[in-house]
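Database export, one record per block. Field names are fixed; values are copied verbatim from the stored entry.
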Amino acid sequence: MNTQFIKGLSIDWNRIAPYSYLREIEALHDLKSLEFTSPITFFVGENGSGKSTLLEAIAIAAGFNPEGGSRNYHFSTFDSHSELCEAIRLVRSCNRPGWGYFLRAESFYNVATKEMDYADKEHPSQKYHEKSHGESFLTLAQNQFRPHGLYLLDEPEAALSPQRQLTLLINIHECAKAGAQFFIVTHSPILLGMPEAEILTFDEGKLHSCDYEETSSYQIMELYINNRKQLLERLLD
């Protein structure tokens, strides 16, 4: 697994307004450049730490619709993306992805609805609204994942059971071996266990690489599983 379409990025903070909230995000405000070393990159950290903000900016800079979908999707139900996408420059390799998809848990309903509008005889709708939330999530991912593709996933575990998360992990791993690149925001200790993936944490100030066992997702889950009774007694007392 060594294919990378996006090798890194740089941020021109002169293009960010002086009083923008982006300058208050601790993990981002001093970030001038970033290098990606693996075809699978995870963004981890506490809520509000800037993970999805950076992923969204990368996706838009790469040509995707802010609310999600493939590069063929062009719609907006609510214009909420930050100005970071205007300040980011992607460092690309000479390779170009043959396909790609931006999956956002928070706007999946809108994308599933738009998929029905875009459907035709040659591209029939998958009718995601007729499936359970988890089934539609996994079906969309499996339908969109292709070799030599670029994929940005924002909390893809949101609708998936632990078993389905393992299925998604397998799908991502196999697709990456076939030349795809992934950027994934997640809190899932299951997905974070992906072999050979790079994990970038937005916690503890400056954005930096960390090991799987250093992520809060792993540490909290390990603590809960191994000390459930004692932990709950302390929390609920």
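Remark 1: Residues 162-177 form the longest helix (16 residues).
Remark 2: The chain has one domain: 6-210.
End of record.
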